Amino acid sequence: MKTSILALFLFLFISVVLAPTYGQKAIADTSSSKWLKDKQVSKPAPEKNKKDKTRKEEEPAEEEKKETKDPETALFNKGIMFLIGYNFDFKNSLSSQAVGILNFYSPASSKDEVNRKGSRRWGFNCGIMHIDYHTNELDNISPAYYTESVYASNLPSDQSYTTMYNKYSTVVQNSINSVYFQPLYKLSDLGIDKNSIYLHGHMELLSSSWTAINTISALQKDKPNNNPSPIFRRPYEGESTNSNETTITNKTNYVNGYFGLGLTLDLQPTIDEGSNFFCQFTAGLTTHHPQLVVQNADDPTQSAKSLYRISPSPRGAFFTYTRANYIHKLSEKSSLIIGSDIRNLWLSKKVITAYSVYLGLNLNIDKILGLFGHDAKEKEK
Length: 381
Description:
Elements: H1 2-41, H2 44-78, E1 80-89, E2 95-106, E3 122-135, H3 136-139, E4 144-151, E5 161-188, E6 196-221, E7 232-233, E8 245-267, E9 275-286, E10 289-294, E11 308-313, E12 317-329, E13 334-346, E14 351-363, H4 365-370, H5 374-380
Parallel strand pairs: 4-7
Antiparallel strand pairs: 1-2, 1-14, 2-3, 3-5, 3-14, 4-5, 5-6, 6-8, 8-9, 9-12, 10-11, 12-13, 13-14
């Protein structure tokens, strides 16, 4: 009996006291082993390698992004012309006037241009410009010669006069400010990369300033009231019988509309992209055209009829317009441009031709924005 009670007591002691202690130690050993395994897995060195690998995978993407940005910027700069130059007059003397052109040209793109998907055939060309033209028809005004008896003043009571042999000569000048827009549709690549032909529409508002400079030169003077001429007239404004030369200037300003269709050629003669040839031919209708009229033609006292001015005709006319320029790249920031503008107005009995030949410097858009601190802002980014 005592032996059975002792055996039962030993069993209960092992079950209640020793078994939980051993179980907790086993669990602790298992947890320690698991912790060691986790610690080995999460070592800092492999994590660093993983980050380096991720960084290396991201770097090509950033480089690819930069490579994509540069062609886009180059294409944008190529399409902007900011020209400052001079228009040369080779007819009478080697003189020049200022020329200014701000042009935005966005041609149709090809599939490989700026990594674009597909291609587009539509583009546009627009801008503003200031040019001084020379005109063949209005420049060729032959001088006229008259013997006139010119009164000393415009007072009706003043009957004293001087008989003079006068030469009348007129020079016409034309200065324009233009705002234009041309939608472009690509017809063909001409079988060569970066050489294209377009069909374009032409819409233009042309503000024309015409100046007729009339000069009266006294080649000979007789004594007052001696051998009077049959032509008597009062002096023009600013004219004096005591002077040997008088200049009378008549100015006319008006706005004209040009609307038409034409062809555009965009050619790159060389492989190194160092030059570009751009040519346009346009035909259409204009809302007005200039006409040469005599000043004070209805005044019976102005018998000479040789003082001229330009007046806009209310009738339109058929026009042709040819624009061409050659661009030669000097550096990444600038290029040299030689260009010409030729406008023809086809009237019923004559053709009025206005032409301009100019030479100028085209500044790159980065150079222009650099004047306003654009380059510094890009570096900060």
